[in-house]
Amino acid sequence: MVCLHFTQRREVENGIGVDDMFIMVAAWRQTDATLPVEERMRKAFSEAAMSITITSITDALAFGISVITYFRSVRIFCIYTGVAVIFDYVYQITFFGACMALFGRREAANRHCMSCLKVKPKEETESTAYKIFCAGESQPPAGQDHALMIFFKNYYGPFITRWWMIVLIIVLYLGYLGAAIYGCTQVQEGLSLRNLARDNSYAADFLDMESAYFKQYGPQVALVFTEKRDVWNPIVQDIMEQTLTKMEDNEYTFSRDQNLSASWLRDYLDFLNSTNLKEPNQAQFINFLRDDFLKHPAFKQYSLDIVFCDNGTNIKASRFFVTTKDLNTTEKERFMMTELRQIAKDSELPAIVYHPNFIFYDQYISILPNTLQNLGIAVGAMFIIALIMIPNPICPFIVTLAVASIVTGVAGYMTFWQVNLDSIAMTNLILCVGFSVDFSAHISYAYVTAKQGSRQENIIHALYSVGMPIVQGSLSTILGVVVLAFTDSYIFRTFFKTTFLVIFIGALHGLVFLPVFLRLTIPVKTSPPTNYANGTAMVVVPVDHQPRLATVSSHVAPRPLSAPCYINNHKTMPTTPLSPSPPSYQDYLRDLASDRSLHIPRARPIFTSYLGRIIKPTDLVADPSMLHDSVTPKRVTNLLSLPDQSA
């Protein structure tokens, strides 16, 4: 158990820590490589820091509150994990951020990733090996999108936001939720003694054979009278006998007729009758019991069931045994224990019932309410933090419902995988809240903070931003625990199964279900339609080589050459709208074509209203390089070959 909880804690640290690092690296990839390192760090942290802050606070708070649980092992796990999450968050925003900055400086200086020595550009060397292992880029690439990010942006995002696909996903979700709820109704509670033994151990073989051939005979449960009483008194004897008889009459124990109970009082009274001592007084009762009965070879075993007072004049405590039967399910074991405890509680004399297996049977009573309590507190804490930190009033409710859906799925589907609800599964369900928050909060925060102008574009941008980190975090976590699937221990296999379900179902929600529900429930600010008929549009190439489409307006006032201009929140060099006459347009392009430098000193307007057929949104879609590449003389020459479009 100690080894298992250590494994669980390490897995939580690795899973959450690696997930946060993937989020940070993905945000770094989306920054412009030509920007200074400080600016890239600012953009990366503004994109990722709030997301990992939300998940770290909710995880730490959920684990911290769960220390009130009844189970000590779970309490220790939650304390350790909550502290680990806090340290992981501090590590991410300090040490790992510093490593990212150093990596950015190395990249900007065109140094090798291993030796940190300056390398030649690929075009300056002819060695194939040098190009593969050492060469760098002469100019930093304009975009550093990973192939998986491009897949989410150009293929998966548009595909999942089609209406027929949305309807199909909703149907699939309803089927998933229905099966999960049915599985929750079939949950088996408790950790059996057999599951603590390794598959190939001697104890496992014994317990398997006992279950196969001798399950009819259950454990012998002790009935203990815990206080000093005048046992020689017939009234006290009758009370003891009545309590023992009630236990023997229970449906989960053998009756008195089957002679499987152990009662020193019954045998002692028969022994007294055989000696013609019918109504002994206290001294006779105690002396004869101690000196004759307990020393007889046939009754010597009862000496372990009687505790005399220090002066030897009375009995301080005594016990009896009843044999249980047909305890072949955890429900029967739980009912047997609770009913026998109730009989002892109702006795006129203070009494308890006990067997060492009650340590396991107690789980059957406490595990479900404690699990529901801990999950409720964790989800409630997560909702409060999300309500405070996510800038949308509806999004925290969506995230909370997503977490509840993931937890329901894990609890339901682990039943189909022959996993009982025990302390091991309970810690994994609490862990499930932590991972669920990560999957849900990342995609939700990316959606509500995206300013793409429509719900569909916001979903595509969110998947583009955090889709790859979710995939990377999920795969890395599963690969980290997959080795446990092949162990000979039920406990470790249970840990793998529940962790796999948490990660798989969480990623399924983050990448499939949640994007659809976000689109259907959370509105976004829609950009006004653009009218190119009478307005003036321009593509501006700022000094960072990233052309951006300027805002189109039919009321663009000419600016003096010395006045700065802001286009799409990017400060550009002063510009002046071109004259609508074709000669001015041709002269401008010829002048631009003669410029052989890729470092354009100022932003240049490329077209005005009469150039609608030369560069317009449809052309930009047809030729995306117009938005992603620098304006080159070759492109301008191509533009010159097009016919003029007079106003």
> How far apart, in Å, are the first and last alpha carbons?
81 Å
Instruction: Say how many strands there are.
Output: 8
Q: Give the strand line-up of the largest sheet.
A: 2-3-1-4
What structural class do the secondary elements suggest?
mainly alpha
Helix content: 55-70%
Number of H/I helices: 20
Task: Describe this protein with a few key phrases.
single chain; 647 residues; mainly alpha; 4-stranded antiparallel β-sheet; two-stranded antiparallel sheet; 8 strands; 6% strand; disordered N terminus; disordered C terminus
Question: What can you see in these coordinates?
Answer:
- The chain starts with a helix and ends in a 7-residue tail after the last helix.
- It has helices spanning about 1-30, 35-65, 70-110, 130-135, 145-160, 165-185, 200-215, 235-250, 265-275, 280-295, 330-345, 360-390, 395-415, 425-450, 455-480, 490-520, 580-595, 615-620, 625-630, 635-640, and strands spanning about 215-225, 305-310, 315-325, 350-355, 540, 550, 565, 570.
- About 35% of the residues are buried.
- It contains 20 helices and 8 strands.
- The protein has a 4-stranded antiparallel β-sheet. Strands 5-6 form a two-stranded antiparallel ribbon.
- The protein is mostly helical and about 650 residues long.
- Helices cover about 60% and strands about 5% of the residues.
- Helix 1 (about 1-30) packs parallel to helix 14 and helix 13 packs antiparallel against helix 16 (about 490-520).
